[in-house]
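Reviewer 2 asked us to include a model.

Predict the structure of this chain.
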Amino acid sequence: MKYLLALCIVAGGIFFFLQHSSAKDLVQYAELEKKLAAQADFILLDVRTQEEYDEDHIPGAVLLPYDKIAEQAAVVLPDKEKEIIVYCRSGRRSAIAAETLVKLGYMQVADFGGISRWQGQLEK
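Predicted model (structure tokens):
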């Protein structure tokens, strides 16, 4: 019985790690850079605070702080079928934001992770 319990705990831990891995399905830098250069039809969503956004942000990004998504997404992001790529400072808030957007019915949501992954110029 002890072994079965231990096996269940280990299996649960592995499942949790795989489902919550910080590198899970992140948009690659080259892909985002290519979309921006081609002026692709998508929204790059910065989910940090206003102060962080004002300090610097990826060119072309729209600000919607992650803690305001539930109440303001319908106004800022009216098209639920448009591709959205989210980012934040380190990747934690962007993961939360992406999950929230999907729960609100947005169809094409992807996570870039943290702004530190951006290798290009930043705007102020």
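The helical segments are 2-19, 29-37, 50-55, 69-76, 92-103. Residues 2-19 form the longest helix (18 residues). We have added this to the supplementary material.
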